[in-house]
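Supplementary Methods. Inverse-folding protocol.

Structures were first reduced to a discrete structure-token string of length 1268. This string, shown here, constituted the complete conditioning input.
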């Protein structure tokens, strides 16, 4: 054995290898993208590598070190292992192995390559034997040069999307040169690569983009395999070229095309769209007059894109690959035109021979030539045929030629022949791989089967498919095990065959494939399920409608199939019932009252279906998906290991599995909203007094919650037990945060204080006072000796925790509690803040130590609701009023990604601890989990909430109007308690409704900043009032019907001409949002209540502020004039009601009795009684003269939002977040009637259903389901 050397040459070779690996892993090398070396940074200082020696040799040759041989590389790897000791070898057997799998442990961060190489030289020299140093001193060494990195240029890193890896590229030199000339020298605008499946269109497009990327400002590669809608693709292209670009979800195709054209005119872009045939109409079953190349319904926008790119002058190039030529392209193409088509034929003999040799086929030249000619040089066909020859004929090409039936005409025939030679298990595998649409493991594949095969049979079948090249194997560090998928052309073939067979079974029977395979998988990743719906479920539904003539006829056919399934002597496991349900859903048929009892309903997608009155009794709902839970998301927090996600949903906490999106546990105990959650960063030693009787102490996972009920609770995560309730705050708790050691907990409140708690004893150790407003955010830093806090007094404060003293005050405004974040290193603060100079909003980075603004992110004008740093501190995620989720580069301030998937404001963002997942919450009642590599949606958790936001009684008491969270305005007949009329569904929430004095008009105001006036009889919108710049919180009509008043979160009250819509006056003076307004009975005065703790009285005629009533300590939420106009009542978050004398402006009396904020007040017509509704879930009836509470009405189970008193003063009507309206008798206090809009599962029978957890069953009942 050769003796190891440690001299200068060995050192230099090893240093060069280390430098090349670091440059490759940091994506700094040019032209190395096709070298198959797998690298993954486990941490910034640990690099995992899987490769072969020959690939490392190719890398060294690429960086100019071709003199380094394979033996040199092996020796260098061994020196890194046993000499410098920074390489951990993970190979199970090292003797003679060409495969290498190892981890490099560096001294410095991955991007500090120079420092790492210098440290390597030092370590090597220190480890060298004394004899070696004498023979070759250090000064004889040459300085190791770093490999040539990608040149600095304005060009962006290519955006490859989901482009496949192309390790082997056969031939195509002439075609590649031709295409290169077309797109560089000839400046072609549009090029179509045309050819049959498997001919190599995708491979040559990737190689072309790789070789010419330096000639373009940006390169974008996208696959159309999953048929994205044109507007989604255009939005993707726009944002890929300009990450900061914002495309409205309501933007038309024409508007998006104009944006794309501007981009390709100002930048030189290379855009490749692969598999264009996916958006073209299927020709199977087409009529004789149907033309080839027509676009699918809804995909005509692709034709507009091609026409614009081909006809408009620009400096970019669009490359398409397709099996069919799209209509409208032929007359534009030509050798002298900027639109050209290259038809790809098969590979030449030399390249085809190389394909066959790589598959192990060696024969006489004439036989090889004949085989290549027979399959027209199609690379995929050659690979599949070679596998067939190897498997069936032991590689003997002569026997293959003698077996005539194995001769195929083209790829479709070849795949068909291959498929029919598969065993039933192999065929099922092929179907399941096509349905899953992305790589799956063997265990995941096994779970799909009915019945489940033995592991041995499944493994053998997969191996057989691998040998036939019908299955692709994906092995990577990320997966840790082999995953399986199909080539696109194979997947397409299988899906087409699957659709054909399923349609035949539905129409003619028997149900075999339809029962053994699911059309969609409801619990898979969102983007996969969307593809399954678009490419499998929808085409089947369309073909059935085409065969039977009408969706109702298809529905009748499916009902007959259900009856057949139900008639079986016993319920059989299978997917048929779930597939029937999903087809009915896809056909948009009303399933109310359908009977699915006694059926297996696996993989039924029930989230978006109307299931009122549906009978699921005795059915099996395993693997199905419902609307998740009742309520609304209020906060979210990942567990320390990222496997769990805790969410506040109304007054309870729900714990979810992150990977599957399943509800694990519900924690109950709070009586009001849970708005903040925090996991203890370390295991907690359980030693509370109630546990001291246990003989052994135990460590548990601990979670803290802060609630509007003014308490903080500590929970055992594993059991759901509340271990401790921390009391002391006198108003809502807004935020909680653990210290890094897990010993202390900080809580911030509306009471303007921060409390530091000892979580072992529950004792409050410190109360920090100084903020002059609500506490929005708290964070421990500096080994828990320092606490940061932010308040709505526009300051950030730095506290000494031990002394309880404020050390520093930074003048930094924060939009709200989630619009602030601290970088992981504790040095930088990010905030979403108002910009008063520009009258908009900004994202800013602050130096925490000096308070200086380091950077303001450009291009963001919408209100920023949420911020979060990635765990490595390199990225910042934001959510805003514009419904958009954005990702920013912290170092440059550039917007890297714009995601437009939510339909309402995004107000919460959180990274998982490993940075692989991002959670976002929106007012569209959804929480979405995103993969941070692709930013594809992984899971969507939906809540259902239909809070009754506002109510008003018509003056004659006949009608009750209600607005609710479902954007629907309902008119209820008071005499019957039935909903008699609904107004057209509004695009945004309506927060307030009000009748006029005659009951002929209904006025509405909402989140879209507008007010609308409606005619009750005709349901016609008479007028729209626009002018507010923020939500409209309250609307009223003057007694004479001439004026309409509106109060808004923009801190103004506006007076409008009710008939013309003209804004007559804008009343300004409040310094915070306005919550409520009221007209004086004579109509000459207007009262407004604001979050600035004041009530203002305005002269309606002049617009002057007549008086400001002050006395409440926090927000004023409601106002009401007494019927005689002498008194004004105001209700506040300070839990009190104040009665004011309007002549003097003095407070006559303060009513106390509610235990939470007072949201609404009203006088009876006689003026002797006053009714108040509170977040404490009660109504209080007060005697105005005696100032006593004469009655408390209890029954609501959540916050009371609105109330109205009947015109005779005999009844009061209240609405609540519990989704009900209650009608009360004022004299007796009895609840006379409960009104409630139908819930999504109203009357749905789940008696005897299997496949539901107790948590799921509880959720379904809360949404209206019944048992029996």
């Amino acid at each position: 054995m050769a003796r190891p050397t440690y001299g200068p040459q060995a050192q230099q070779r090893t240093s060069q290898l280390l430098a090349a690996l670091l440059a490759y892993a940091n994506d700094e090398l040019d032209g190395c993208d096709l070298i198959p070396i797998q690298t993954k940074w486990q941490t910034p200082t640990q690099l995992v590598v899987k490769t072969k020696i020959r690939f490392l040799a190719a890398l060294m040759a690429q960086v100019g070190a071709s003199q380094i041989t394979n033996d040199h590389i092996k020796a260098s790897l061994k020196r890194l292992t046993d000499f410098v000791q920074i390489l951990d070898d993970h190979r199970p057997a090292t003797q003679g192995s060409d495969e290498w799998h190892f981890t490099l442990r560096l001294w410095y961060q991955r991007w500090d390559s120079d420092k790492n190489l210098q440290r390597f030289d030092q370590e090597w020299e220190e480890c060298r034997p004394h004899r070696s140093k004498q023979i070759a001193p250090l000064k004889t060494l040459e300085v190791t040069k770093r490999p040539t990195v990608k040149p600095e240029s304005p060009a962006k890193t290519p955006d490859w999307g989901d482009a496949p890896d192309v390790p082997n590229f056969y031939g195509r030199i002439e075609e590649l040169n031709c295409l290169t000339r077309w797109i560089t020298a000839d400046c072609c605008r549009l090029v179509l690569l045309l050819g049959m499946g498997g001919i190599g269109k995708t491979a040559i497009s990737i190689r072309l983009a790789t070789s010419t990327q330096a000639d373009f400002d940006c390169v974008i590669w996208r696959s159309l395999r999953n048929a994205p809608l044109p507007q989604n693709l255009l939005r993707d292209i726009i944002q890929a070229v300009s990450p900061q670009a914002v495309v409205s979800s309501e933007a038309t195709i024409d508007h998006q095309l104009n944006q794309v054209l501007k981009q390709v005119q100002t930048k030189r872009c290379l855009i490749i769209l692969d598999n264009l045939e996916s958006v073209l109409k299927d020709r199977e079953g087409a009529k004789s007059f149907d033309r080839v190349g027509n676009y699918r319904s809804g995909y005509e926008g692709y034709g507009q894109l091609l026409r614009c790119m081909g006809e408009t002058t620009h400096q970019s190039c669009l490359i398409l690959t397709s099996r069919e030529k799209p209509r409208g392209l032929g007359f534009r193409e030509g050798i002298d035109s900027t639109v050209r088509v290259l038809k790809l034929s098969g590979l030449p003999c030399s390249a085809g021979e190389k394909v066959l040799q790589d598959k192990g086929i060696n024969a006489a030249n004439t036989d090889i030539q004949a085989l290549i000619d027979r399959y027209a040089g199609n690379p995929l066909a050659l690979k599949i045929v070679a596998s067939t020859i190897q498997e069936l004929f032991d590689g003997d090409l002569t026997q293959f030629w003698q077996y005539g039936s194995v001769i195929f005409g083209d790829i479709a025939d070849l795949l068909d022949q291959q498929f029919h030679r598969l065993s039933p298990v192999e065929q099922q595998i092929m179907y399941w791989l096509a349905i899953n649409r992305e790589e799956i493991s063997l265990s995941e594949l096994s779970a799909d089967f009915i019945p489940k095969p033995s592991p041995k049979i499944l493994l053998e079948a997969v191996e057989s498919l691998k040998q036939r090249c019908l299955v692709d194997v994906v092995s990577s560090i990320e997966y840790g095990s082999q995953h399986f998928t199909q080539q696109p052309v194979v997947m397409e073939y299988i899906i087409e065959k699957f659709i054909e067979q399923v349609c035949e079974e539905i129409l003619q029977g028997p149900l075999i494939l339809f029962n053994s395979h699911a059309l969609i998988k409801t619990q898979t990743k969102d983007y996969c399920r969307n593809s399954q719906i678009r490419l499998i479920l929808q085409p089947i539904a369309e073909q059935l409608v085409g065969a039977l003539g009408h969706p109702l006829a298809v529905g009748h056919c499916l009902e007959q199939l259900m009856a057949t399934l139900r008639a079986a002597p016993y319920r059989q496991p299978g997917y048929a019932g779930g597939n029937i349900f999903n087809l009915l859903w896809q056909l948009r048929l009303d399933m109310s009252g359908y009977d699915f009892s006694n059926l297996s309903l696996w993989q039924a997608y029930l989230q978006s279906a109307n299931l009122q009155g549906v009978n699921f009794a005795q059915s099996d709902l395993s693997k199905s998906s419902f609307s998740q839970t009742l309520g609304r998301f209020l906060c979210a927090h990942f567990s320390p290991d990222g496997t769990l996600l805790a969410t506040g949903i109304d007054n309870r906490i729900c714990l979810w599995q992150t990977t599957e999106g399943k509800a694990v546990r519900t924690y109950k105990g709070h009586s009001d909203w849970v708005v903040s959650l925090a996991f203890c960063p370390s295991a907690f030693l359980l030693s509370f007094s109630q546990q001291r009787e246990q003989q052994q102490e135990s460590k548990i996972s601990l979670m803290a919650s802060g609630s509007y009920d003014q308490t903080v609770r500590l929970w055992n995560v594993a059991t759901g037990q509340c271990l401790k309730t921390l009391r002391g705050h006198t108003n809502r708790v807004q935020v909680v945060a653990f210290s890094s050691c897990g010993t202390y907990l900080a809580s911030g409140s509306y009471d303007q204080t921060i409390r530091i708690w000892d979580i072992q004893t529950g004792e409050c150790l410190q109360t920090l006072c100084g903020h002059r407003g609500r506490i929005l955010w708290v964070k421990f830093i500096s080994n828990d000796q320092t606490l940061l806090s932010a308040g709505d007094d526009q300051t950030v404060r730095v506290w000494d925790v031990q002394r309880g003293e404020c050390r520093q005050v930074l003048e930094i405004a924060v939009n709200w509690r989630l619009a602030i974040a601290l970088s992981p290193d504790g040095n930088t603060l990010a905030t979403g803040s108002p910009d008063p100079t520009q009258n908009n909003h900004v994202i800013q980075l602050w130096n925490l130590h000096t308070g200086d603004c380091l950077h303001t992110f450009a291009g963001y004008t919408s209100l920023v609701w949420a911020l979060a740093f990635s765990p490595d501190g390199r990225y910042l995620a934001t959510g805003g009023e514009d419904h958009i989720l954005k990702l920013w580069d912290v170092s440059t301030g550039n917007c890297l990604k714009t995601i437009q998937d939510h339909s309402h404001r995004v107000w919460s963002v959180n990274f998982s601890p490993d940075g692989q997942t991002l959670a976002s919450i929106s007012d569209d009642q959804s929480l979405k989990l995103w993969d941070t590599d692709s930013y594809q949606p992984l899971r969507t958790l939906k809540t259902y909430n239909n809070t009754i936001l506002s109510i008003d009684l018509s003056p004659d008491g006949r009608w009750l109007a209600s607005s609710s969270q479902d954007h629907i305005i309902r008119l209820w007949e008071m005499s019957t308690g039935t909903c008699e009329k609904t107004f057209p569904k509004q695009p945004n929430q309506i927060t307030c409704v009000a009748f006029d004095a005659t009951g002929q008009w209904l006025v509405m105001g909402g989140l879209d900043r507008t007010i609308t006036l409606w005619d009750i009889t005709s349901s016609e919108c008479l007028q729209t009032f626009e002018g507010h710049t923020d939500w409209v919180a309250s609307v009223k009509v003057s007694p004479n019907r001439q004026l309409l008043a509106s109060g808004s979160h923009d801190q103004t009250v506006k007076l409008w001409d009710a008939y013309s819509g003209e804004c007559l006056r804008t009343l300004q003076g409040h310094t915070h949002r306005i919550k409520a307004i009221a007209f004086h009975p004579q109509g000459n005065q207007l009262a407004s209540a604001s979050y600035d703790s004041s009530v203002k009285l305005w002269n309606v005629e002049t617009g002057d502020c007549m008086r400001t009533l002050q006395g409440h300590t926090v927000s004023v939420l409601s106002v009401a004039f007494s019927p005689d106009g002498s008194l004004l009542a105001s209700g506040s978050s300070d839990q009190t009601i104040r009665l004011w004398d309007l002549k003097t402006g003095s407070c006559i009396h303060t009513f106390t009795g509610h235990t939470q904020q007072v949201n609404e007040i009203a006088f009876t017509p006689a003026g002797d009684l006053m009714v108040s509704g509170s977040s404490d879930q009660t109504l209080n009836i007060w005697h105005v003269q005696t100032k006593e509470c004469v009655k408390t009405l209890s029954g609501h189970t959540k916050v009371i939002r609105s109330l109205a008193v009947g015109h005779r003063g005999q009844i009061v009507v209240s609405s609540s977040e519990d989704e009900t309206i209650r009608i009360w008798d004022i004299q007796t206090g009895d609840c006379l009637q409960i009104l409630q809009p139908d819930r999504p599962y109203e009357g749905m029978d789940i008696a005897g259903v299997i496949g539901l957890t107790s948590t799921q069953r509880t959720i379904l009942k809360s949404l209206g389901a019944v048992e029996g």
